[in-house]
Amino acid sequence: MTVKRFFLYFTLLIFLACGSSDDSSDSSGDNDNNNGGNNNGGNDDTKDETNFYFSESGNDSNSGSQKNPWKSLSKLSNSELSPGDSIFFNRGDSFFGELVVNGSGTESEPIVFTSYGSGDKPIISGKVGSSGGGDYQQAIYILNHDNMVFENLEVQNNRQAPRADVDNTDSFGIQIHNTGDETLSNFIFKNMTFKNVYAIAQVDPSDQQAFNQFEVAGIRIFTDWNKAPINNVLVEDNYFTDLQRFGVHAKHAIGNNANDNRHTNFVFRGNEFKQIGGTCILPSRVRNCLIENNIFDEPGAKTNSRMIGRGSAVWNWYSVNTIIQNNQALKIRGVLDSHGIHVDHRNVNTFIQYNYMEDCEGGFVEILGGNETSVYRFNISVNDGWRSNPNWVNSNHTIWLSDNIGGQDGYNSDNSYIYNNTVVINRTSDPYRTAIDIQAINTRIFNNIFYSTNGSKMGNKQVNITDNNLSMTNNLFFGQVDTRFKDYDEQAVFQNPNFYDENLDGAKG
User: Fold this and answer.
1) Contact at 8 Å (CB) between 492 and 471?
2) pLDDT tens, 273-295?
């Protein structure tokens, strides 16, 4: 190597070393491998490290390291994120504003949003008040980005101050929004808390049109008309409470093309929903959805006067291949619907199995119009279907199959199966009567136990069955079950099932 060439090489090394050197405070603070943020606070186009820290006591002019954290959500929203980045929020702190995620991860290197330190989960809230320009539509917004994990955070959005260009009927904790032509994939929500999410407006739950358009949710997963779907979503081990309507709402606006561009491959597992104003989980236009091992406690609640106060724990809409299993649906309320788990309109292959449902105001089985292959099997229903509505005499059902869509009759559900369920009405006070209405084709009801004692009467309010190919056989009837229903059974069994520990509360009874 010539002297001139060596000199140039040596000069270049010195230049690179000087350009990448960190300030002394950050260098000493990150010797424990905390991997602080961009060395110059995120103003450089290249970054050497991938961990970013946020604290109420931080400063946006800091480096973003654990010893010198950033402070505001706007700082993060204006920082470009890359695959493998991790964002840490200090436990016990609260961060107000809107986090707009700026960047995508990859399947092997997702972007992770999590917490550090000790104490309660950090809170991210879209509530900033009038002084902040009005409360945001959502606390966290993911627009056309994917491959990310959210864990160990609490998300709120109690909107009370109007904001320009945000509808007063909108409020979300986290919104994933696809407005593009590329499928968004791989979202994980784990050990999160979603609470206190409210819009400014309220609606009447008996106003069907207003009710349908009111979509406040802890998590909203949404694709615009004619745009690409969202794929691979896992919602696991989270806690949802004090939400105006939905826990999770997955929705695709579809479009007028011939493609089946439903969302795909959603899993909801091991979550607890406590006092939700409406429905806990609604998959709308989703293909391949598994909902299992969740606790749905008081959907349709009115513990806050702003709650909508109506909703089955789970229902699906225009979805394909939905399995809802091993869940508990408890104390469900509402002027309409509000069964334990129901099948709404135009679904294909819905399996509701191995669930425990108790004290659901609307009833047990609800299958609405236009469905193909809906199955209720191996479920336990206890004291469901006691609603009294003077404007709808048969508003409470043990079994309800309707042929109605959007106010129009004639949309019979085909191939519905109700078998191996245990249906019990035995409460010791306030006996009630239920209805059984079936307007469908090719309905199969077999191997169930229908048990009604202590003055309640199953089917005594109304039995109205219109299905020329109904098959009903080998069901066990005990107590006051209406003869009009029992007479459809070709091989009925009449005897006491002798339940063990019948008087125990909950699923163990």
Assistant:
1) no
2) 999 999 999 999 999 999 999 99
Is the sign of the CA dihedral 106, 225, 194, 333 positive or negative? negative
Sign of CA dihedral 484, 489, 495, 498: negative
* Beta pairing, strands 476-479 & 433-439: unpaired
**What pTM value is reported for the model?**
0.90
Q: Which amino acid is at 127?
A: K
Q: Which token pair is 494?
A: 């009449």
Q: How confident is the model at residue 101, as a pLDDT?
A: 99
Q: Estimate to the nearest angstrom the gap between the alpha carbon of 280 and the chain centroid.
A: 6
Q: Is it the case that residue 8 has pLDDT exceeding 50?
A: no
Cα–Cα distances in Å, from 122 out to 14, 92, 96, 114, 119? 42, 5, 11, 9, 9
**152 closest CA partner among 115, 186, 110:** 115
Of 79, 25, 23, give the one whose Cα is nearest residue 51. 79
Furthest C-alpha separation in the chain: 107
Distance CA 42, CA 63 (A): 7
What is the mean predicted confidence (pLDDT) over 314-321?
98
Q: Give the three-state DSSP class for 8.
A: helix
The secondary structure of 446-475, three-state, reads: ECCEEEECCCCEEEEEEEEEECCCCEEECC
Residue 213 has φ and ψ, to the nearest 5°, of -85, -5
